[in-house]
Design brief:
The complex is a heterodimer. Chain A is an alpha/beta fold. Chain A has helices spanning 5-10, 12-15, 21-30, 42-52, 85-96, 114-118, 131-144, 171-174, 194-213, 264-270, and strands spanning 32-36, 56-60, 101-105, 123-126, 148-154, 157-163, 222-227, 232-237. By secondary structure, chain B is an alpha+beta fold. The chains are: A alpha/beta, B alpha+beta.
């Protein structure tokens, strides 16, 4: 199956690249990527992946678009207020590139549904906004052997790491357990600079592109740490933990866990 | 003795918003105690009630995770760079 003429033109600037070419473009068109969260991280990731011609993009999000989202969630516009984020995302991405089939899934991920959802994709992007989902996604990806690109943001800071289950450190090798409720603000109300989400989400898209194309060095075995205030990128080594609760030879986490959903700041606000 | 310690955003309330502070000590345990002296309350954010570094926080000496060195007995010396890095969950 060759590329259509309009595809050759649309993707010409990346087809030109020596390690991509027509073959690489075909790989992108054949790829299936799942994005968890159509928010601050998912927005830039989805925009770049759809533009690059990823053939199928699944988007999971249970929320609706709110005014306070628009400062950073660049998939959505003022006209989308009140719509589901997955529908808004689908329209935005379709308007950019019809080559990308967008599969919206307005659902909250749980231990019951996550395995079936991730099974349909080649690689997963975690753009969720809470610890329970992050650990659920990590464990599900490790158990099913799915590559995962982690990204996290908080105020002026961002983190990213790529996980190849069985080959490189997983999120629990890095942080074995989530914090108990109340110790760490884990929700968007803690504040975030929109551009930080853009930088980390774009980094996640870049990891996915490299993985699918099979080029370069993935962000495996190392955590990228970005600080917006001094525009610094640092990396720390993340070895596989021989005592990792989920990806070691003797795991203690052998089935998926639904950690208590919590958000200390949100609770305070509601009290 | 002065070792540079990078303080993550969630703990900067305790360090008068400073993201980098200096501390003394010959190993990580002493360094955390020195930080506690200068910035009361910081130790209980980093360590649990048994004094062990919490499982969602890592401490790095020159980019290496002390869990894979000698945990809190990992030696530190003048000029070393220590980073405290917590898990962060935001994304939306």
């Amino acid at each position: 199956m060759g590329l259509r003429e309009d595809q050759i033109e649309r993707y010409s600037r990346q087809i030109l690249l020596p390690r991509i070419g027509g073959k690489g473009q075909q790989k992108l068109l054949d790829a299936r990527v799942l994005i968890i969260g159509a928010g601050g991280l998912g927005s830039p990731a989805a925009l770049y992946l759809a533009s690059a011609g990823i053939g199928r993009i699944g988007i999971v999000d249970s929320d609706k678009v709110e005014l306070s989202n628009l400062q950073r969630q660049i998939l959505h516009s003022t006209a989308d207020l009140g719509r589901t984020k997955v529908d808004s995302a689908k329209d935005t991405l379709n308007a950019i590139n019809q080559d990308a089939e967008v599969v919206p899934d307005q659902i909250r991920l749980t231990s019951e549904n996550i395995m079936d959802i991730i099974a349909k994709y080649d690689i997963i992007i975690d753009g969720s906004d809470n610890f329970p989902t992050r650990y659920l996604v990590n464990d599900a990806c490790v158990i099913s052997g799915k590559p995962l690109v982690h990204g996290g943001i908080f105020r002026f800071d961002g983190q990213a790491m790529t996980i190849l289950p069985g080959e490189s450190a997983c999120y629990r090798c890095l942080f074995p357990e989530p914090p108990p409720p109340g110790l760490v603000p884990s929700c968007q109300e803690a504040g975030i600079l929109g551009a930080v989400a853009g930088i980390i989400g774009t980094m996640q898209a870049n990891e996915v592109l490299k993985y699918i194309l099979g080029i370069g060095n993935l962000l495996t075995g190392r955590l990228l740490i970005f600080n917006a205030l001094d525009s610094s990128f640092r990396q720390v080594k993340v070895p596989r933990d021989p005592k990792c609760p989920v990806c070691s030879e003797k795991p203690t986490v052998t089935k998926l866990i639904d950690y208590e959903q919590f958000c200390s700041l949100r609770q305070k606000k509601e009290e | 003795m002065s070792i540079k310690v990078r303080i993550p955003a969630p703990l900067q309330k305790l360090t008068q918003s400073k993201e980098e502070v200096e501390a003394g000590g010959t190993n990580i345990k002493e360094l955390i105690d020195a930080l506690e002296k200068d910035f009361p309350g910081i130790k209980e954010r980093i360590c649990d009630e048994k004094g062990l570094v919490r499982k969602f926080i890592n401490i790095y000496v020159n980019g290496e995770d002390v869990r894979f060195l000698q945990q809190d007995a990992t030696p530190v010396k003048d000029g070393d760079e220590v980073s405290i890095i917590p898990a962060i969950a935001g994304g939306r």
